[in-house]
Amino acid sequence: MVSISSSQALELAVFFGQATVRASGSRMDDAELVRAVLKRDRKATAEFVQLFSGRVYSYVRSRLAPRFEQVDDLVHETFLAAWQRLGSFRAEAELEGWILGIARHKVEDHYRDRLSRMEIWEEGTAELPVAAGSEPEIDVELDRRLLAARASAVIAALPEHYATILLWRYWEQKNSRDIGMLIGKSEKAVERLLARARAHFKERWSHE
Amino acid sequence: MNNDDLLFQQIAAAGECRVDAPSVLKSRLFSALVQAEAAEGTLMSLSECRARGRDLCVFEHLVAIAPIGEDLKSRNPCRVCHARLLAETFEDAPIWWPGCPYADFQNR
Is residue B10 included in any domain, yes or no? Predict the structure, then answer.
């Protein structure tokens, strides 16, 4: 039979009596959190997920449009990779930025894989950019959140290859030559795809 | 740099829309990480977690104060907990226990 000492019984009673009261203190700093996770403190691991999942999820979701079904997998890969490399984290950097750096690499791998596999590099006359005179106005002076939301909606409505090339070029700020090198295409071919993607984006913008 | 490049750079600079990660995803992430930690070595015992001022759920608390060895207190009781199953399956799962990470992951 399992016996419980009086102090344990008291502790239990106190626990049940305060079951609705949160006892947690303030958030640990980055270095402390990393040390605790490395010691396999499961509560620190929960805090690690709670603190950074929103930021990583928002970032990955915005970068994978319109293929949202792959977001969870990529966030998952990011966290596992971050956990595996946590020992190399140096406290002079911010942990959030460090994890986002890992997410960026995952996103770039995803772009490279996605664009390399697509049969999009033969130009078709049906995909020529719209004429300059009919371009819609895009007001970049909109409230930042409104602009981000609208751009996100337009990106999500684009064909996958256009969304990917725009996100990689402008949101990830990768230049056309580097993109071309990573996917085995010429800078010109990337520029042509970008021109078509921009035209489609602008056309969609007026319908959003 | 052409006008289009400038325009798109300005749009991209607006950043991304912040959204909460789904609670199901957070729950699965946490389970996967704790499983990976357990596969690599012994988890910190629940009594040590408690000594460090961590919140324990009612079940973990029972394990932490039970007169059993530290090796048993280092196991992961969440593996057999219904809260984990609910949290990994449903958004807004019906779990509210204080100190339960899966309850904390709910976006309420």
Answer: no
